[in-house]
Amino acid sequence: MAAYQVKGNLTFAIKKLVRKIVVASVMAGAAATTAVAVTGTPALAINPVPCGRSDFLRISVHTGDLPIRWYSSCYANRGITYVGNVWLDEISTGNNDVKLYDYNGSVVHVGRWWVITYPNAPKHIWAVEIL
User: What is the pTM of this model?
Assistant: First the structure.
């Protein structure tokens, strides 16, 4: 009976140790998942602003659909935004590093304080990102 008691206590001790290891593993996995989810998500804080300041990103575009419309949009803060099916006629980056996402699959990087016009061959873009 004494041997059974030792074996029973040993079994209990092993089960307790296994339970601690499992709980620690689950907690570590949850912490790692939270860290990846929080730090790996891109910021979506970009927002449209009134055009008026030269340090904002300003894009002048026209639509490809009839009737063709020309308009300018300005943006502030880091992030990416979908601009639709538009043709880029001019970009003024202001105090922003910018990526343009073209429908042909290319990504164009434009540095701060650049004004670029595309009078004869506008870029067909679908999104802009402020870095």
Answer: 0.64
User: What CATH number corresponds to the domain at position 98?
Assistant: 2.60.20.30
The ranges of the chain with pLDDT < 50 are 1-4
Taking CA atoms, 116 is separated from 38, 75, 110, 119, in Å, by 35, 16, 9, 10
Q: Report DSSP state, residue 113.
A: T
Query: CA-CA distance, 43 to 75, in Å (whole number)?
Result: 14
Alpha carbon distance 40, 118 (integer Å): 35
Residue 87: give the domain boundaries: 47-130
d(CA 106, CA 61): 18
**What is the rounded distance in angstroms from the CA atom of residue 43 to the CA atom of residue 37?**
12
Amino acid at 61: V
Task: Report the alpha-carbon distance of residue 43 to residue 101 in Å, rounded.
Answer: 17
Are residues 17 and 77 part of one domain? no
Is-contact 62 76, C-beta < 8 A?
A: no
Q: Which residues contact 71 (CB under 8 A, 6 or more apart)?
A: 60, 61, 62
